[in-house]
Structure formats: structure tokens, C-alpha cells
Amino acid sequence: MHASIVTLFPELFEPFLRATVLGRAVQKGLLRVDLTDMRAFGQGRHRIVDDRPFGGGPGMVLMAEPVVRAVEAAREAHGTEVRTIYLSPQGRRFDQSIASELAAAPDGFILLCGRYEGIDERALDLLALEERSLGDYVLSGGEAAALAVLDATARLVPGVLGDDRSAPEDSFSNAQGLLDHPHYTRPASWRDVPVPEILLSGNHAAIAAWRHEVALERTRTRRPDLLAPGSAYNPEPTRPSLTDTPTQGSAGADKEA
Ligand code: 9WO
Fold it and tell me: Which pTM was predicted?
């Protein structure tokens, strides 16, 4: 996986890449992370990258020119089709399926981190950026979101996690689109609270069924949106088109993947 981060704070990424499983993945050659310092593309002796907003209002706006030149520089290390994501609360949601796509993208991907009040809209248009949000909250910049995207994608690359099974089995990657089941470890009784008895039974089929049931129940109560029609758990059947030639036994078989 090849990721580039375009940011005014490249130094924020270095300790994270050194201290976590991502650092070992870089060492192993499974992961390449390029950092592009937007400041290097700023104007004048002071490398200025921001200016006051037209129309007034508080704060500063990142100028189009340094942003475009920084992203274009980052793009040179990727293929021409490289997916470039601007992390902002105005974006459509980033989710596990996008993480999987990015982890497997042959040209890699670029993450653009904004600061201040945002980026001049003309830069976003010119670069044909894909704007993505991690959730409905405002940060002081895109860097914390970029770290989350890097972490979510890198752990999907085969060999990055110690145990090959760890990634597919947790929430959302469990293919069923359900929340994870609860976890327990020793001691079997802790402060007088026992572990659910079935987990000590050794009956692996019964344990799998119990985990699925509990996962489904907590998804129902905590995240009913994940079970709604059209979700991964409950895919919308595609309507057969009137122009399709009917084939025997195919009714309802053409669900979305
Ligand atoms: C500031 C703001 C204030 C009032 C109402 C809406 C507002 N939006 C912003 C804003 O988007 N500020 C940004 C700070 C500019 C670009 C980088 N910043 C950022 C990225 N904050 N939060 C994110 C982010 C990215 C991905 N997922 C969640 C939040």
C-alpha cells in the first residue's frame, strides 16, 4: 500500500509511524507513506500558505496555489489515476468499504489535510478531490482524521497485523455488516462477574451462534441504521429491468455484492 499525506504538520505522522504496527509494516516493505509538507509550496520568504477569507469572517483560508502544487507534487509518486481524498466534515462518510478499496488500490492514495477554516474551493475543484468525513464533528485540522484513515487501511494489507485473522473478524469486516460481539478473557470470574457460561463450554458451533445472536442484538439496539434496507447486512435486491430477458430460477438471485 502506498499512501501520501499532504499536510502542514508532517511531524505529527512520524511518531505514529514509528510507534505502531504501521511502523513495522513500513520496515517490512508492506507499506510506504510519503509526507508532503505543504509549507514548502508557500509564498515568499515566509512560505505563506494562508490568507483572509473573501466575504469576511474569522480565521484564515488555505490558498489554492500552495495546495494544488503540493498535491500535484505528491501525485508524481503515484499513477495518474491516484485517488485523492480531502478529509473534511463536509464530505460524504468514510467507511470500512472505502478503507478496503484504498488498501487494495494499485496506484495507492493521497490524503489532503486542511487547516484553519478550510481550503479555497477552486483548489478542491481543480484537483477533482473526493471529500470524505469520519463523522459529524469538527477538528482543528485534517491530520487526526488522516491518521485514522491510515490506520484503518494499513491493517487491511495482508501481513501488516501479526495474526492474519485479526482484521477480517472485527466489526464491519465480519462480512455480515454487524457490530462486533463482546470479548472476555481470564479470569473466568472477575469481581464476582462471571464470563457467559457458553464461552467455557468448548462447543465451537454453539459459541459461534451465540456470538452472532449477541452481535445482532447489540446492532439492533445501538446501530439500527446498519440493519436498514440497503445496508451491507440487508442489501436491497436490484429490481429486474423490463428489458432483461427472464431466465429460469434467477428471481432475486441478482443481489448487490
Ligand atoms: C469549521 C467549522 C466551523 C463551524 C461550522 C462548520 C465548520 N467546519 C469547519 C471546518 O471544516 N474546518 C476544517 C478544519 C477545515 C479543514 C480541516 N479541518 C477539519 C477536518 N476539521 N475537521 C475535519 C474532519 C475531517 C474528517 N472527519 C471529520 C472531521
Answer: 0.89
